[in-house]
Specification:
disordered C terminus, 477 residues, FAD/NAD(P)-binding domain, 17 helices, 5-stranded parallel sheet, Polyamine Oxidase, Chain A, domain 2, protoporphyrinogen ix oxidase, domain 3, alpha+beta, 22 strands, 3 domains, globular
């Protein structure tokens, strides 16, 4: 019987455990132990019910186009619980000079694919619109080296596009800055499109023309009827209860002849392989004595923190809010808030008809210190900015503040080259696998894929499975 330790019980670690559990039930001679330093399993996937509303503390959904999270939902019996976003009502605003301006139709991420809506949109200045016109003639060419998202977007569309779209969009996903994030790691498709087509606009249209005409439009986001924690609960219910060790922080992991020694508290245990499914920085601390070089590379992956603020209101507020999913706040607006979501519009089953549910985001790279502020101060700031932006003066029926320290990995310039070095160094430690959002995707689907792949890798290493051909994976969130 081979034994595998899984350190960390976020969705990456739980996906690894579930993959091993499936193999164990199929007769593969393997057992596993999940070590979690905190009192609960599931990491940032936390759902609360307040006043009839479904309140998400962490991610509220995942991108539909990335299949791994939905596949896991189906494997744990949640196929009938998957729901799509209300895309018929999808409208997102950008705060520009204190006013909300809707993102024009046909703008895919930050690439305009429809001329007239963009030309007539007040979101962009005449100068930026001229940049967009010239962009259609951008010659193909591959950048000699990795660069920031801001650098690439500015080359194609000018600095205003960075400020009003690229930066706010990326801060919502990564909590980071376009001027720091790597194009090749965060937006690999854009790098590929530029190399092949030159113009990102022409590349998007070419990709759209290749899609089958009969393909029904899928919702942009997918979630679960009873919230994202439903996935955690369903996975945990299928794992061996004896294998789950909460409130058990691991102090160190040491390679030994034929295996690994995992030390947690006053107890040390022998395993044949180890999956470290923590942040890259936590992994660095655990692996310092095993490989200082690997720890150094892992520790160089930076993280930012985030805070989600949920506020519930009555029907009067609900009817007064702008239609759509919410708004993004560019850095140039001088606000602490990064974005706000009108949750009752975005997904069904999130709030009763007589309730409005707002989810606001603060923190990220631009405001890491806000994590130290008391909840009352954070609420005061958020409510003041909601008053300034959408005129919301009503007292909320309830509020919830959730703080996530070091939750979002930052894929800086050179990230993919660092991952290559990490992989080479990891291979010098037989039986070690790494999983989590610090490597090749920060969203829930990428974390699921990462955990499942790490479990498959250690099974191959232990001779309990055959290697599968590598699949091409998008690094974007």
């Amino acid at each position: 019987m081979k034994r595998i330790a899984i350190i960390g019980s976020g969705i990456s670690g739980l996906s690894a455990a579930f993959t091993l559990e499936e193999r164990r039930r199929a007769g593969v001679p393997v057992e596993y132990v999940v070590f979690e330093s905190g009192p609960r399993l599931g990491g940032v996937l936390v759902t609360d019910r307040v006043d009839g509303c479904l309140v998400e503390a962490g991610p509220d959904s995942f991108l539909t186009e990335k299949p791994w999270a939905a596949d896991l939902c189906r494997r744990v019996g949640l196929a009938d619980q998957l729901i799509g976003s209300n895309d018929a009502d999808r409208k997102t605003y950008i705060l520009v000079k204190g006013k909300l301006i809707v993102i024009p139709d046909g703008l895919m991420f930050m690439v305009p694919t429809k001329i007239l809506p963009t030309v007539f949109s007040p979101l962009f200045s005449l100068s930026t619109k001229l940049h967009m016109a010239r962009e259609w003639f951008h010659p193909p060419g591959k950048a000699e080296a990795d660069e920031t998202v801001a650098s690439m977007v500015e080359r194609h569309y000018g600095p205003e596009m960075v400020d009003r779209l690229a930066d706010p969009l990326l801060s919502g996903v990564y909590g980071g800055e376009a001027a720091q994030l790597s194009v090749r790691a965060v937006l690999p498709r854009f790098a590929e499109m530029e190399a092949k087509h030159g113009s990102l606009g022409r590349a998007m249209l070419a990709a759209r023309r290749k899609m089958p005409a009969a393909t029904p439009a899928r919702p942009l986001f997918t979630s679960l009827k009873d919230g994202m924690q439903q996935l955690v609960d369903a996975v945990v219910a299928r794992l061996s209860a004896a294998a789950l060790r909460t409130s058990t922080p691991v102090q160190s992991i040491q390679p030994q002849t034929g295996g690994w020694l995992v030390s947690a508290g006053y107890v040390s245990d022998q395993f044949d392989a180890v999956i470290v499914a923590t942040s890259a920085q936590a992994a660095a601390a655990l692996l310092q004595s095993a490989s200082a070089s690997l720890a150094s590379e892992l520790g160089a992956i930076q993280y930012t923190s985030s805070i989600t603020v949920n506020l519930g209101y009555d029907q009067q507020v609900r009817s007064s809010l702008p239609p759509g999913f919410g708004f993004l706040v560019p850095r140039s607006e001088g606000k602490q808030m990064l974005a706000a979501t009108f949750v009752h519009n975005k997904f069904p089953h999130r709030a009763p008809e007589d309730r409005a549910l707002l989810r606001c985001f603060v923190g990220g790279a631009r405001n890491e210190q806000v994590l130290q502020a008391p909840d009352e101060e954070i609420l005061r700031v958020v409510r003041a900015e909601l008053r300034q932006i959408i005129g919301l003066t009503a007292e909320p029926l309830f509020t919830r503040v959730y703080k996530w320290k070091g939750a979002m990995a930052q894929y800086g310039v050179g990230h993919l080259e660092r991952l290559e070095r990490i992989d080479r160094l990891r291979q010098q430690l037989p039986g070690l696998a790494l999983a989590g959002n610090g490597y090749r995707g920060i969203g829930v689907p990428d974390c699921v894929r990462s955990g499942s792949a790490s479990a498959s890798d250690v099974l191959v290493f232990l001779g309990l499975a055959e290697a599968e051909p590598p699949a091409k994976v998008s690094q974007s969130a």
